[in-house]
Predict the structure.
Amino acid sequence: MNIGEAAARSGVPAKTIRYYEDIALIESADRNANGYRAYSDEDVHTLRFIASARSLGFTVAQCRDLLALYRDRERSSADVKAIAANHVAEIDEKIESLRAMRATLSTLMRKCHGDERPDCPIIEELASGAAPETDAK
């Protein structure tokens, strides 16, 4: 099948498929006599695997590791679990960071009158370059 059909069947855009080939996340597709890429059902399955992993926020490097483990029938599930556990820890860090950002913005919004006056604590804090203090609850 051509790249358009592989993209439609896998849910991965053609441009992304080409990128995955360029960075060797997937093997470059064979070429037909006309020079077009030819993808197999296995290629589509691999693309779906990557799409699933990416939808869970795994990085390209982590996807590479997961693909290697997927292809290794003698893998240890502990290796797969370790990658997932590391990713969960990264997600937890991002959640905490987002909560801190939200608390900071909420604090700044409470300080701002939000009226027609030009003075605005939000702008003033941003212009100061200092991280505003929060009263996170």
Observations:
- The helical segments are 3-10, 14-22, 41-55, 60-71, 77-111, 121-128.
